[in-house]
Write a structure and sequence with these properties.
single chain, alpha+beta, Cathepsin B, Chain A, eleven-stranded mixed sheet, 13 strands, 16% strand
Length: 374
């Protein structure tokens, strides 16, 4: 009798899963202008590729122009700040390829913008970016200066670091021509009406009071950037509202979950620990976990959620069951053999709720009360 009951239960479970599981059929709700999908290659510069893509969409929104901007120019400018920070903290801080969206905005404020046509990138042998030797090269110089081991050899560490970055990433052009006009990088940013002070970073954690600004203590926040803290439901609502108003959103998110797949172009949070079922969720709709603020905070504090990748939200899609997903532009290329959805990821709302570290967007996409938070 017990064996028979188990068989009946298994039949019911199998039937219920087969009824629920359906192949994805997506329809577009919001689809905003964005540039083509790029590849960051073998570098940890997703923060620049994602936020530069975000700025390209901002340039289109403001000026109605498609302009390919130089991601590596902003990386090059940010390394200057990383080196300074490392020296001033006497090496007692992280020095890595990583960064956050506000680092790009800070680089625009200090160094302006440059179109791709005016910046000479340094590629690897196969025309693929590879920065594996950048940090080791500059850290060697900085550590020597800090320890004073060979101080006479590096009395002007800035000059040495500049020469290394010029060689391995590219030289910062003092000026260039665009539209038959000569610009400095700062003049070009002003020409495109990109104002760094107009961009705001937002997050959602319970260890800080809501609707306050605080420095988020994560490894890549070397520049001590501040974030406005909002409730979790508000984080989702702000993102949806911005997209519906025509504003794209830069996204910092954890992509280490088993439910994230570049191959299938999908990020979901199936309510199961069974790896077979998780794999099936890349092709069929499965129930997802309910994510509240407590679960999100716990995943952050136990290091299951980390700031390991940045991307660019450009739209909203919906499956046939009414579940919505953010359309997220990645920077791992668009080779259809390896990357689903032409280099975009359809990220479910539960995944976004659990794994988002922060977003960055134009202040006009926000309610005015958030502008006044100090």
């Amino acid at each position: 009798m017990i064996a028979f009951k188990k068989i009946i239960q298994l039949i019911i479970l199998t039937f219920s899963l087969s009824v629920f599981a359906q192949e994805y059929q997506f329809k577009t709700i919001v689809d905003l202008e964005t540039s083509s999908v790029k590849s960051q290659g073998q570098t940890g510069t997703c923060w620049s590729f994602s936020t530069t893509s975000f700025l390209e969409s901002e340039i289109y929104r403001i000026n109605h122009r498609d302009i390919d901007m130089a991601e590596m120019y902003l990386v090059r400018a940010t390394y200057d700040k990383k080196a300074w920070n490392y020296v001033m903290r006497q090496g007692k801080t992280q020095l890595s390829e990583g960064g956050l969206a506000h680092d790009v905005i800070n680089a625009v404020a200090s160094d302006g913008l440059v179109p791709q046509s005016a910046f000479t990138d340094i590629f690897g042998n196969n025309k693929i970016y590879n920065h594996s030797d950048v940090v080791p090269a500059i850290q060697k110089i900085l550590d020597a200066y800090i320890k004073n081991d060979v101080h006479s050899k590096y009395p002007h560490w800035k000059r040495v670091i500049d020469s290394i970055l010029d060689e391995k990433i590219g030289k910062k052009p003092p000026s260039f021509f665009f539209d038959n006009k000569k610009f400095t990088p700062k003049e070009f940013a002003a020409y495109l009406k990109i104002k760094p002070k107009d961009y705001i970073s937002i997050t959602s954690f319970t260890h800080q009071k809501p609707y306050t600004k605080f420095i988020l203590n994560i490894p890549d926040n070397f520049s001590n950037g501040s974030f406005i803290n909002v409730p979790l439901d508000s984080l989702v609502a702000i993102t949806k509202k911005a997209l519906k108003k025509g504003y794209t959103v830069a996204l910092d998110v954890d992509v280490s979950e088993k439910g994230f797949s570049a191959k299938y172009g999908l990020a979901v949070l199936p309510d199961t620990e069974n790896e077979t079922e998780i794999y099936k969720s890349f092709t069929q709709i499965y129930p997802e976990k309910k994510v509240n603020a407590a679960l999100r905070q716990n995943e952050f504090e136990n290091y299951n959620t980390t700031d390991d990748h940045l991307m660019h939200i450009t739209g909203i899609v919906e499956d046939q069951k009414g579940n919505q997903y953010f359309k997220v532009k990645n920077s791992w290329g668009n080779n259809s053999a390896r990357v689903g959805n032409n280099g975009f990821i359809y990220m479910s709302i539960p995944y976004f709720r659990l794994k988002t570290i922060s977003i960055l967007l134009h202040k006009e996409a926000l309610d005015s009360k958030l502008h006044r938070i100090e």
